[in-house]
Design goal:
Layout lengths: L2 H7 L2 H10 L3 H4 L1 H6 L10 H48 L3 H15 L4 E7 L10 E4 L10 H6 L3 E3 L3 H8 L8 E6 L4 E7 L12 H19 L2
Helix pairs in contact: 5-6, 5-9, 6-9
Protein name: DUF484 family protein
Pfam families: DUF484
Keywords: Coiled coil
Length: about 230
């Protein structure tokens, strides 16, 4: 039915009568309320003006909440970037591979507020024993529980299977409620674990994890070339 035909069948009184019978109508069509032109004087329609104003206020409040969330995310990203930069500097300043490895572990534990850090390395490593070092001489084939992870070359965060946790964290595995693991190319895996189940979540971004993994991989490659 065209607008003109509809106007012939419905009068303003019909519309007003319908709205009186259905006062919830505008709550079902809030976009219509925002488009209405309403008188400013007092009277029965004043409540519609209040509704329209309240609707605009709620939209404004929601926009402010979204802006505050974006500002918070930007601030946290800036802090993370600074921590990654500090990690890079610490690795570059290290005089030996052992010092570089210890610097990585210390930075991850302190600056990223993690409870446990593990560096799982394949083949000859040239590093002294340490509680954060897991040596797997048999290479990636000796850790079949990580086969799919190593094949995808992408960091993973969240909750790991019990099998993976015990391989990485040993007796401390029951303490780990969430973790992030990063592939280090042909060298192994870097893992950081937390007792907080929400510290590392599946939906979190992996950009900074990739940057950390790239730094550690480069340090390991430099170490191997110097062996």
């Amino acid at each position: 039915m065209s607008d003109s035909a509809l106007a012939d069948t419905l009068s303003a009184s019909d519309v007003a009568a319908y709205l009186r019978r259905h006062p919830e109508f505008l709550s079902e069509f809030p976009d219509l309320a925002a488009q209405l032109t309403l008188p400013r004087d007092q009277g029965p329609v004043a409540s519609l003006a209040v509704y329209q104003l309240q609707s605009l206020r709620e939209k404004n409040a929601e926009l402010e909440r979204q802006l505050a969330a974006l500002v918070g995310i930007a601030a946290e990203n800036e802090r993370l970037m600074q921590r990654v930069h500090d990690l890079n500097v610490a690795v570059l300043r290290a005089s030996t591979p052992a010092v570089a490895a210890r610097s990585v572990v210390a930075r991850l534990a302190e600056d990223f507020h993690t409870d446990h850090v593990r560096l799982l390395l394949f083949g000859p490593i040239g590093l002294p024993p340490a509680d954060w070092l897991v040596h797997v001489p048999g290479g990636r084939h000796a850790v079949p529980e990580f086969a799919d992870f190593m094949a995808h070359h992408e960091p993973v965060s969240g909750r790991l299977s019990a099998e993976r946790l015990y391989r990485l964290f040993g007796d401390h595995a029951p303490e780990i409620r969430s973790s992030a693991i990063m592939p280090l190319g042909e060298f192994g895996i870097l893992a950081i674990g937390s007792g907080d189940p929400d510290h590392f979540q599946p939906g979190m971004g992996t950009l900074f994890l990739k940057m950390i993994a790239a730094t550690v991989t480069a340090a390991l490659r430099r170490s191997q070339e110097g062996m």
